[in-house]
Amino acid sequence: MNPLSRFSINQMTVKQLALPELTEACVRLGVPAVGLWREPVAEYGLDATAKLVRDAGLSVTSLCRGGFLTATDEGDRARALEDNRAAIDEAATLGTDTLVMVSGGLPVGSRDLVAARERIADALSVLAPYAAERGVRLAIEPLHPMFASDRCVVSTLDQALDLAERFPADQVGVVVDTYHIWWDDRAPAAVARAGATGRIHSFQLADWTTPLPAGVLNGRGQLGDGAIDMREWRERVESAGWTGFIEVELFNDGLWARDGVEVLEETAGRFVDCAG
Amino acid sequence: MNPLSRFSINQMTVKQLALPELTEACVRLGVPAVGLWREPVAEYGLDATAKLVRDAGLSVTSLCRGGFLTATDEGDRARALEDNRAAIDEAATLGTDTLVMVSGGLPVGSRDLVAARERIADALSVLAPYAAERGVRLAIEPLHPMFASDRCVVSTLDQALDLAERFPADQVGVVVDTYHIWWDDRAPAAVARAGATGRIHSFQLADWTTPLPAGVLNGRGQLGDGAIDMREWRERVESAGWTGFIEVELFNDGLWARDGVEVLEETAGRFVDCAG
C-alpha cells in the first residue's frame, strides 16, 4: 500500500508553490490529496483550480476557511454571512465536502467570550442549511487558547462539539488539529465523543515547537520536531472512527523560505516516519 | 477604606526597582503587600529582605517560585527536590505562607504529558509535608497552554486541582491567575471547586494583550489594556470565598523599560479602576 495513501498536503504548508507546481509535485510524489485556501485559489481562479486538481486526480480534503462570525455590528455580521456563503459555494465548486471554520475572536473592546460564542451559534444556524444544500459540511476548528482573543473564541475540542452538536452531524462537525489541542487532558475523551457522534470532519497534523515566534501564528512545527506524539494522535483519531485523509498544515516561516518541492518531500517523509 | 487594602504588587511587575525602593514606594503609596521572587531576594539577602519588608509593615503574599518537578533523570529530580526545600525555607523566613509552584515542562525529547504530571504528584508527596512543618502551603499555578511543553504541563485550573486534591487543602492548593485561565469556559466552575475545598491559595491578575511577543513570556498586559474583565474575575474568586490579597503580576518589557515607581502608581490605579 502506498504509505502516502492517507496523506493530504495543506496548501499553506508549501504556499511558495503556485497551484500548478503543487499539483504537479503531488502527482509525481504520489501525494493523493490537497487542502486548499481561498486566497490562492481565487488568485489562480476558482474554476481553473477546480479543473487543475480534477485533471491531476487529486482529492480536495478541505477548503480553508470560513468563519469570523463574532462581530456585533449588524453590517459586519451581514458581510460575514455573505462571505461564508461564498466560501461554501467555492468549496462545492472545488469538489470538497468540508469547509474549515475559524470562528473569530473578540470584537474590539469586548471582553465577553460567552456572548461571542453564542453569536457563532446564531450564524451557524443560518449557514449550516445553506451548506448542506450544496453538499458541504462546516468543520469548526478549535484554535489554541493563545488565539482566543484575536482569532477564535472556541479554544477546546469540547467547546467546538458543544457548538456542533446543536446541528445535524452531517451539517456541522469539528476539525481535530493536533497543534491546537495536544496539551488538553480532556481532548482524548473529546475525540471519542466527536467520533461517536460522527462529528470528526477533518484531521490535521502539526507539531508544537518552541520558542514561539512573535505573533505566534507561524510557529507550527514540522512533524517530528516538537512535543506531540503524532502516531499516538493518529491512532486515537482512527480509533474514534476516522478513515479519511490526514492533512498536514504548517505555518512556518522557516519552511516557507525553502524550496517548496523540497518541503513537500520532507513533509511526506515525516508523515510516514512520525504518523505512518 | 483604603481602595488598595487588598492590593499586592508582585515584585516582577516592577523588577527595575531594588527592594528598598520597592518597599519605600509601597509605604508611601499605601500599598500593603508584596509578592516576592527568589532571585532578587537572594541578591539583596534573605534575612535582609525579611527585615526590610517586616520593618516596612508589608505583608508578603507569596514567594515565586518552586516547582520544575518533571525531570526524569534521578540526579535532576533530587536537585529539584532540594531546591524546592530551600524555596520552602525561604518562604518561611520571609513570613509568607504561600510558595507558588510552576510545575515544569516536558523533559527534552519527551512527549508524555501524562507521565510528567504524575512525576509532579510524586514530588508534591515529598514536599507538601516538609512545607506544612514550616507553615508553608504549596500553590500549584496552572500556566497558559502555550507554556505546556517548556514551562508547565499543568495547563488548566481543573488539572491543578486534580493534583492538589491528592493532598490536604492546607498543604497543597492552586493559584488563580487570570492571564492563564481567562479563556477557559470551565474555569469559573473550577474556581468554585477550588473555593469549596479551600484550595485557593493565591489570586493574581494580569491582562491578555496581543500580539504576543516572541517567546510569549513577557506579554502580560497592564490591567485594563486587554481582553479580560478584571472585575468579573475578582467577583468570581471572592464569591468562591477568597478574602486575601490580590497580586498583580505583570511580565512586560514595555513596563520594565519605564520608571518603576511610575509603573507601580499606574498599576495601583488600574487595580482600583478595573478591579476595585
Automatic annotation (TrEMBL), chains A, B:
It comes from the Bacteria. Coiled coil: none annotated. Residues 24-266 form the Xylose isomerase-like TIM barrel domain. GO terms for molecular function: isomerase activity. InterPro entries: IolE/XylAMocC-like, Xyl_isomerase-like_sf, Xyl_isomerase-like_TIM-brl. Keywords: Isomerase. PANTHER family: HYDROXYPYRUVATE ISOMERASE (PTHR12110), XYLOSE ISOMERASE (PTHR12110:SF52). This is Xylose isomerase.
